[in-house]
């Protein structure tokens, strides 16, 4: 169980540049979309931050992911932490929202 503070709140502008075989890319073309997501900062009593190894590229990162339809940002955070670590989020504190164009990026899925 995640008894430490979990951070909530990543809202990124995402530039969709995925390949031509991606259904969403075919639907929207080269337009920029907004994809809300959450990233958790989970610390232990010593202040160390929990990282997970990504299966797509092998890099280490904080548990994170995109929000699904009809899901709150808090539920997104809780689901992503559970899926990636098996930990249950008991509380979360929003600390940042990233919404400016300078935060635009393309996800590993081309979104």
Summarize the entry for a quick read:
With 111 residues, the protein is an alpha+beta fold. Helices cover 17% and strands 24% of the residues. The radius of gyration is 15 Å and the shape is globular.
Write structural notes for this entry.
With 111 residues, the chain is α+β, with helices and mostly antiparallel strands. The protein has one domain (6-103): Nucleoside Triphosphate Pyrophosphohydrolase (Alpha-Beta Complex), CATH 3.90.79. It has helices spanning 23-28, 73-85, and strands at residues 6-8, 10-15, 32-39, 52-53, 60-61, 64-66, 92-94. Strands 2-3-6 form a three-stranded antiparallel β-sheet. Mean pLDDT is 80; it is low at 1-20.
Detail the topology: elements first, then pairings.
Elements (H helix, E strand, L loop, with lengths): L5 E3 L1 E6 L7 H6 L3 E8 L12 E2 L6 E2 L2 E3 L6 H13 L6 E3 L17
Parallel strand pairs: 1-7
Antiparallel strand pairs: 2-3, 3-6, 4-5
């Amino acid at each position: 169980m995640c008894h430490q503070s979990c951070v909530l709140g990543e809202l990124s502008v995402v530039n969709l540049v995925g390949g031509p075989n991606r259904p969403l890319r075919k639907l929207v073309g080269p337009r920029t979309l907004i994809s809300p997501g959450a990233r958790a900062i989970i610390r232990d009593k010593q202040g160390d931050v929990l990282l997970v190894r990504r299966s797509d590229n092998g890099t280490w990162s904080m548990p994170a992911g995109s929000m699904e339809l009809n899901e709150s940002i808090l539920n997104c955070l809780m689901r992503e932490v559970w899926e990636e670590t098996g930990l249950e989020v008991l509380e979360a504190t929003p600390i940042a929202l990233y919404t400016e164009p300078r935060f635009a990026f393309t996800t590993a899925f081309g979104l």
